[in-house]
Write a structure and sequence with these properties.
The protein has 257 residues and is α/β, with parallel strands linked by helices. It has two domains: 7-62, Vcp-like ATPase, Chain A, domain 2; 67-253, Vaccinia Virus protein VP39 (Rossmann fold). The protein has five helices and 15 strands. It has a seven-stranded mixed beta sheet with strand order 9-8-7-10-11-15-12, sandwiched between helices. α4 (130-142) links the parallel β8 and β9. The longest helix has 14 residues, at 199-212. The radius of gyration is 21 Å and the shape is elongated. The chain starts with 6 loop residues before the first strand and ends with a strand.
């Protein structure tokens, strides 16, 4: 049942959906009418409700992606779900994993990592800008994930505090400057996952990987997503889509070259 204080996704249609906090005396106003949020308390998730104009809406339990795109405050550019899912899957992390991340920003990747490692794992996030840490902290708190994350106002190129990590994720302009610190922080066979937006960075990363000689199983990928407009009369690709967002570079750490 929906309780007061829950976050709920009010879905009218593709263009009209919003994550709101269920508060007894609050009202959601839309261009299709208003909805008294107190009326949602006690309903089952997935219930159909009516706006003041009679328009139908549905009360859905928000997914992590819903929270990220419709609730999180943005302070920086973010990594899209198509890339986030690929990065996590190739890293091999899961329940109980310990990972480090650099370039927390808004906290999109941080949230996905915290969700992936579960209640027994932990994420250590490095961010050089204090204002980004404040934004990410609030976002993680709203998603109920803050207990799985430690955020540090520190430059990861100056060192990684943690040892025996299962993976390191880098979303930063100069990831190669972190390579010397992997020796004392990343488990043998652990994953290094890097996200960068330009080919120039990819070439420089690959060059540094060759010099570092302790990374193997190296791959580079770019993911293109094409969504479709759902219509029984005219099913077709959407006119506007997410094309290039960045490059995902993955590799595995070995103790000896």
């Amino acid at each position: 049942m929906i309780k007061e204080g829950d976050l709920a996704l009010i879905y009218v249609d593709e263009r009209r959906s919003k994550v709101v906090k269920v508060v007894k005396d609050k009202t959601l106003h839309t261009d299709r009418g208003y909805l008294k949020l107190g009326d949602l308390i006690g309903l089952e998730w997935g219930s159909k409700v009516r706006l003041s104009t009679g328009v139908t809406a549905y009360v859905l339990k928000p997914t992590l992606v819903d929270l990220m795109f419709k609730s999180f405050k943005r302070a920086t550019q973010v990594i899209y779900p198509k890339d986030l899912a690929y990065m996590v899957m190739l890293s091999g992390i899961g329940e109980g994993s310990r990972v480090a991340e650099a370039g927390v920003g808004t906290g999109f990747l941080t949230a996905v990592l915290a969700w992936a490692v579960g209640s027994r794992g932990h994420v250590y996030g490095y961010e050089i800008k204090k204002e980004y840490i404040d934004v990410a902290s609030r976002n993680l708190e709203s998603a109920g994930l803050s207990g799985r994350v430690t955020l540090k106002n520190k430059d990861i190129t100056q060192g990684i505090d943690e040892q025996e990590l299962d993976a390191v994720f880098l979303d930063m302009p100069n990831p190669w400057d972190v390579f010397p610190h992997l020796q004392n922080s990343l488990k043998p066979s652990g994953s290094l996952v890097i996200f960068v937006p330009t080919v120039n960075q990819v070439l420089k990363i690959l060059s540094h990987m060759r010099e570092f000689k302790k990374l193997t199983n190296i791959s580079v990928a770019e993911l293109i997503l094409r969504e479709y407009q759902v219509s029984q009369e005219a099913l077709r690709p959407k006119s506007i889509g997410v094309t290039h967002t960045g490059y995902v570079i993955t590799s595995r750490f070995i103790k000896e070259p």
